Amino acid sequence: MASNLLLFFLLVVSSVPFLAFSSEPLNPEVEALIAIRQGLVDPHGVLSNWDEDSVDPCSWAMVTCSARNLVIGLGAPSQGLSGTLSGRIANLTNLEQVLLQNNNITGRLPPELGALPRLQTLDLSNNRFSGRVPDTLGRLSTLRYLRLNNNSLTGAFPSSLAKIPQLSFLDLSYNNLTGPVPHFPTRTFNVVGNPMICGSSSSHAGNANAAECATVVAPVTVPFPLDSTPRSSSSRAAAAAVGRSKGGGGAARLPIGVGTSLGASALVLLAVSCFLWRRRRRHRCLLSGPSSVLGILEKGRDVEGGGGGEVVARLGNVRQFGLRELHAATDGFSARNILGKGGFGDVYRGRLSDGTVVAVKRLKDPTASGEAQFRTEVEMISLAVHRHLLRLVGFCAAASGERLLVYPYMPNGSVASRLRGKPPLDWQTRKRIAVGTARGLLYLHEQCDPKIIHRDVKAANVLLDECHEAVVGDFGLAKLLDHGDSHVTTAVRGTVGHIAPEYLSTGQSSEKTDVFGFGILLLELVTGQRALEVGKGSGVIQHQKGVMLDWVRKVHQEKLHDLLVDQDLGPHYDRIEVAEMVQVALLCTQFQPSHRPRMSEVVRMLEGDGLAEKWEANHRPAAMAAAAAPHELGYDHRNDSNGSVFFNDFHDNDSSLSSDEVRSIDMVEEMELSGPR
C-alpha cells in the first residue's frame, strides 16, 4: 500500500512541470509561421526575425496583420527562397493573401491550402512546385486570384477549380498539365504552355475525347468572355483534326505517312523551342511578357446606366471602375470633396454605391502615359502588397482619356497634416511611423521584383490608418527599376526640400534618392516642422535661418538636441531616442548617394541595431573625402565637427536670408518640378 502511495506521489510531482508548461500554449500563428520558416531555405535571411519565442508575429518581416493583430498576409516574393512549403500554413486561418512568387520553392503544393477559409489571393507562380494540383483548392470559396503558372505541375487538369464561386483570375500556364479543360465561369483564364491540354466541350465539360487531347500538342489559350458563353466547337474540331485521318483510301496513306513524319519532326523542334523559351521566361520579371496579369485581363462593357462603353473588370481584388461610378461617388468631383492636391492630381473623398468610403486620385495629366503604360503601372501597384503600403482598391481607364486610382480612405490623414494638427502625435507614435515607413520603402526597394523607386518620399505621402500605423502612398506612378540598372534618368519630379542633390542636378534617381527623402521625413517627425521652415525656438536656434537640414546640422554640432524636438511634445520624449533618430536622418541625407545606407540598414538602425558602427564608419576622415562639386548649384561640402559631408539645398551657411527670402522658401515648399515621374 505504501509503495502504491509513493508511486502515485511521484507521478503527481513529475506531472507538475508539464502542467505548468502547458498552461501557457504558444500562439498557433507563431507555431505555423515557424514551421513554414523551417521548411524553407532562406539564403538572404529575410525571415531571420521570425522568433519562435515571440508571442506577436505582426512585427515580423514579410508578415501582414489586421487591426486585430491577426496574420492576414504572407508575402515574400523574389527572395531566393527554396525548400518546401509546409502544410502547417493551414493553421493561419485568417490568411487572405499568400504571395510567394518568383522563388525556387520545390515539392508538392500542400493540400492543406484548401483549408484556408478566408484566402482571396494565392500566387505561387515562377517556382519549382511539382506533382498534381490538389483538389482541395476547390474548397477555397473566397478565392478570387490564383496564379500557379511557370512551375512543373503535372497530372490531370484540376476540375475542382471550376467549383470556386468567386474565382475571377486563373493562370496555370507553362506547366505539364494534361487532359480536358472543364468549363470555367472564370473571367480571365490562361493555360498556354501546357502541351497536352485540349479545349472543353460546349455541352459536356471535361468529357473531350482522349484521342483529341493527345493530338493537341501546340500551346492553347482558352479565353472565357464575361458572359461565360461557351466557345464554338469549330476551333476545337480543327485542332482535333491535326494528325487524324477523316477519310479512307489507300492512295492517301503515303502522303499521310510522309506528312506525319515531317509533322513529328516539326513538333520535336517546336517542343525544344518551347522548352528553351520557357526556361528563359522563368527568369523574366514578373510584370512583363504574355503572362502579365493585365496583359491577359479580359474586358467587358459597362451596361449600367445605358451602355456608355466603360471598361469594367477585376484583377484579383482590384476592381476596374467606370467613370460614371466615380463621378457619382465624388458628387461630380466636387471641390467640397477634395482631400488634397499633389503633383499628380487632386484626391477626392468618394462614397461608392455600397456605402464604402474611398479616396479617388484624379490624375492631372492623363495623356502623359498611354493606356498600356497605365495598365502596367496599375499592375505594379496591385502586386505590391505590404502592411505599410497603401493598397489599391481599383482604377479607371476611360475611353475619354481620364485616368483615376481608387484607394481606401484613411481617416487620420497624412503625417504632414497630423504634425500640424491637434492633439500632437506622441513620441511613441512618431517612432512607429518612422519604422513603418522604412519597412514600406524597404519592401519597394529590396523585396519587389522589379524594384520600385518612390521618388517623392515626404510626410504628405505617408498616411495614417485607423491605428495610426504608417502607410506609404503615391508610389503607384513611380518608375520601375530593373535589377540590371543602378539608376533611372528622368525629368525631375518631387517636392523642393525633399529632393536629393544628385536627382536635382542630373535627374538620376535610385533607391538612395528615396533614402534622402526619408531622412528629411525623420527630421520632420522630430521637429514637427516642414522641410523648408526656419528654426523655431529660443536662444541661438531662433536666429538660425535656413532649410531644415542646415538647421539640424548646426544643432547637432552644438549637441543641443533638445532644441530640435517639437515643442508640442513638451518633456514627453526620450532624449537618447531623439539623438539616435537625428543620427539616422543625417546618415540618410549625406551628399554622396553611396554614403547613404540602404533601407534595410535604416530599418535595423531604427530598431537599435548597428547605428553606432554605421555612424563611426561614415565619419572617418578617409571615408569622407568627398568629390568636389560646383558651389553654384548650392552644394555645401564643408565638414561638420566629425568630418561628415552634408548637402546645403539653397544657400551658403555664412549668408543670412531676408524675411522676404524666408517667405519665398515657404511658398515654394509644395512646388512640384515638372516632368513625368
TrEMBL record:
The keyword Repeat applies. GO terms for cellular component: plasma membrane. It is found in: Cell membrane. Residues 1-22 form the signal peptide. Residues 228-249 are annotated as: Disordered. InterPro entries: Kinase-like_dom_sf (IPR011009), Leu-rich_rpt (IPR001611), LRR_dom_sf (IPR032675), LRR_N_plant-typ (IPR013210), Prot_kinase_dom (IPR000719), Protein_kinase_ATP_BS (IPR017441), Ser-Thr/Tyr_kinase_cat_dom (IPR001245), Ser/Thr_kinase_AS (IPR008271). The chain crosses the membrane at residues 254-277. GO terms for biological process: brassinosteroid mediated signaling pathway; regulation of developmental growth. Pfam families: LRR_1 (PF00560), LRR_8 (PF13855), LRRNT_2 (PF08263), PK_Tyr_Ser-Thr (PF07714). ATP binds at K361. It catalyses: L-seryl-[protein] + ATP = O-phospho-L-seryl-[protein] + ADP + H(+); L-threonyl-[protein] + ATP = O-phospho-L-threonyl-[protein] + ADP + H(+). One of its GO terms (molecular function) is ATP binding. It is an enzyme of class 2 (transferase). Residues 231-244 have a biased composition (Low complexity). Its EC number is 2.7.11.1. Residues 333-616 form the Protein kinase domain. Keywords: ATP-binding, Cell membrane, Glycoprotein, Kinase, Leucine-rich repeat, Membrane, Nucleotide-binding, Receptor, Repeat, Serine/threonine-protein kinase, Signal, Transferase, Transmembrane, Transmembrane helix. Belongs to the protein kinase superfamily. Ser/Thr protein kinase family. This is non-specific serine/threonine protein kinase. The lineage of its organism: Eukaryota, Viridiplantae, Streptophyta, Embryophyta, Tracheophyta.
